[in-house]
Amino acid sequence: MGWFWTLLLRGNGLAGPVVMLLYPLYASIKAIESPFKEDDQQWLTYWVIYSFITLLELGAGPVLAWIPLWSTIKLVFAAWLVLPQFRGGALVYERYVRPYFYKSGVNLDQKLTDSQRKFLSSMSPQARSSVAEFIDHNGLDAFDKIMAAANAESRKRRGDS
């Protein structure tokens, strides 16, 4: 049984970088190239959590070294975050990060209608940022009025053509 623990503890030296860096790097590149938002969210969330764990280790390294099997626990947690079967990164984001991030600001994703989301997705990131700033300053009702006026103008042009 002693050889099992030795293998487990020494295996982290190779498994750690593969599970925590190489595979997420590969999957992140694939996510960038895919047209779907879900995989982007999964990998961005992973990298945020990985960065947090790394910063935690930098600050509390001597304390964490006293935790038995810390590297194995970190490896298992990273595998849970990484493996698509579990979608741990997205779960952590939805349950813990998102509620605190949007606590003080406007959660546009929940308040916008489908047509508003479609309209915003057609804009550049800079324009979306300006719209978010406008909504923060003037409220969602002002944005609704602008959207209604733009739709009326669009219908009018189509009718005149």
UniProtKB/TrEMBL annotation:
Keyword Membrane applies: yes
InterPro entries to which the protein is assigned, alphabetical: TB2_DP1_HVA22
Keyword check for Transmembrane helix: yes
Listed Pfam families: TB2_DP1_HVA22
Keywords: Membrane, Transmembrane, Transmembrane helix
Compartments, as annotated in UniProt: Membrane
Topological type in the membrane: Multi-pass membrane protein
Transmembrane spans: 14-32, 44-67
Protein family (similarity comment): Belongs to the DP1 family.
UniProt-recorded name of the protein: HVA22-like protein
Organism listed in the record: Sphagnum troendelagicum
Record lineage: Eukaryota, Viridiplantae, Streptophyta, Embryophyta, Bryophyta
